[in-house]
Amino acid sequence: MLEIENLMVFFENALALNGLNLTVQQGEVVAVIGSNSAGKTTLLNAVAGLVNDMRINSQRRGGKRISTYGHIYFKGEDIIDWTPRQRVLNGIVLSRERHPIFQESSVLENLKIAGYLRKRSEISNSLAYIFRLFPALKALKRRVAGFLSGGEQQMLAIAMALVARPALLLLDEPLLGLSPHMQATVMQAVVELKQFSGITVLICEQFAQPVLPIIDRGYVLENGMLTFSGTGAELIGNPEIHAAYFGRLAEDGVDGQN
Ligand SMILES: Nc1ncnc2c1ncn2[C@@H]1O[C@H](COP(=O)(O)OP(=O)(O)O)[C@@H](O)[C@H]1O
Ligand SMILES: [Mg+2]
Fold first, then answer.
1. Would you say residue 252 lies in a domain?
2. By the number of CB atoms within 10 A of the CB, which of 50, 51, 186, 217 ranks highest?
3. Which residues belong to any copy of the ABC transporter domain (predicted)?
């Protein structure tokens, strides 16, 4: 479904992604594990079309020079020149790092805002489907989003991405700031997405431990380069990966109430 070939992204002279090759098959849950600054957000932003946007805006303002090379194929089509909007309309939907939500609006209002590209009737279908998938969110739908716990806010952020009816859902650090218990809940939601919706998922994370048990395949990203790939079990069984990426479980977990 997604094929990335030799992707390179430069910010001025700094290489954020260095000749990256990655595939995601239809129906798979694939993870990219990497520590801070490895290039995770740049990778997902490139797939979502945001790196292109940054490049064009930056060029227009005479700002930082961003250059990209390589190809991204979605369902066999080269999408490198597609706008972010075209990508969303074709099913490529990004749930961004640190989940920007409207703090003063209710859960329901946030979900409706997220559906701005879609018809009203489609949105109400999506909402019914999201509330079946995340019953906890249904119970909170009138709650002001800013008063939700960190885990509930992350659930809302994923749900906001689901309103756009993704075929390929991109999750950028969905576990950031969550307690181990909330991390497990969010990962369980991903398992349910795969089982009940058939949505293909690409997750970027620095916390390997909660992610690896639920994925089909994973990659390790270091300094913009993929250094290892394998099934979830192969990654769990690799002593180097264990040493480097385990024990990172909720080390900055701030969501203590969950
Ligand atoms: N807009 C930008 N301008 C300059 N450098 C950037 C920009 N975005 C990311 N980078 C650099 O690219 C590298 C990868 O960053 P990023 O993709 O955000 O990593 P991660 O999400 O894994 O923490 C880092 O060295 C970062 O400093
Ligand atoms: Mg990031």
1. no
2. 51
3. 2-248
Å from CA of 45 to ligand 1 middle: 11
Q: State the angle between helix axes of 120-133 and 150-163 in degrees (0 to 180), rounded to the nearest 10.
A: 140
Sheet order of strands, 29-33 included: 92-95, 168-172, 200-205, 29-33, 217-222, 225-231
pLDDT, tens only, 179-218: 888 888 889 889 988 888 889 999 999 989 999 999 999 9
Residue 190 belongs to a domain: yes
Atom of ligand 1 nearest to the CA of 35: 22
For residue 122, tell me if it sits in a domain.
Answer: yes
| 231 alpha carbon – ligand 2 mean position (Å) | 23
250: in domain: no
* Atom 25, ligand 1: residue with shortest CA distance: 37
Q: What is the mean pLDDT of residues 58-80?
A: 90
Domain count across the chain: 1
Give the Å distance between the CA of 224 and the centre of ligand 1: 9
Question: How far does the centroid of ligand 2 lie from the alpha carbon of residue 201, in Å?
Answer: 17
CATH of the domain at 226: 3.40.50.300
- pLDDT (tens digit, 9 = 90+) per residue, 215-247? 999 999 999 999 999 999 999 988 888 888 876
Mean pLDDT, the chain, whole residue set: 89
Ligand 1 site, CB within 6 A: 11, 14, 16, 34, 36-42, 64
